[in-house]
Amino acid sequence: MHIEILKSKIHRVRITEANLHYIGSITIDEDLMDAANLIENEKVQVVDLDNGERLETYVIRGTRGSGMICMNGPAARRIGVGDTVIIISYCSMEFEEAKKYKPSIIFPREGNRL
Asked: Residue 26 pairs with which residues in a beta bridge?
């Protein structure tokens, strides 16, 4: 039996940019991606602490060390600059393996820095 469990989480970062006319996705500082064990094009859930929005999109690599978290495309209408979000990814694995798995969870500081 396979189950879905938490794989990665970036807990409480601020949206620094919104680009409505981009094709879609969320751009994340590459330092944050590495620390949270996220890769480009990985599916993520974005949860907005300010307005309760929850949406799914995929990751685009942002400039390393920039602190950038940019909502792109239509999601920029639902989650705006200055909002605080949690970015979550999940994985599927065998039940017994999942019992031992430790997700990558990071808690960035002010300015979306490690």
From this structure: 59, 71
pTM: 0.96
Give the right CATH number for 2-109 from 3.10.20.30, 2.40.40.20, 3.40.50.2300, 3.30.70.1520. 2.40.40.20
Token pair in block for residue 50: 């300010």
Q: Which residue of the set 25, 66, 101, 104 is catalytic? A: 25
Catalytic residue status for 58: yes
- DSSP class of residue 19? E
Q: Catalytic pick from 22, 58, 90, 104? A: 58
| Spatial contact of 15 and 100, defined as CB atoms under 8 Å apart | no
Please list the pLDDT of the chain residue by residue as tens digits (114 residues): 999 999 999 999 999 999 999 988 999 999 999 999 999 999 999 999 999 999 999 999 999 999 999 999 999 999 999 999 999 999 999 999 999 999 999 999 999 999
Reply yes or no on whether 25 is catalytic. yes
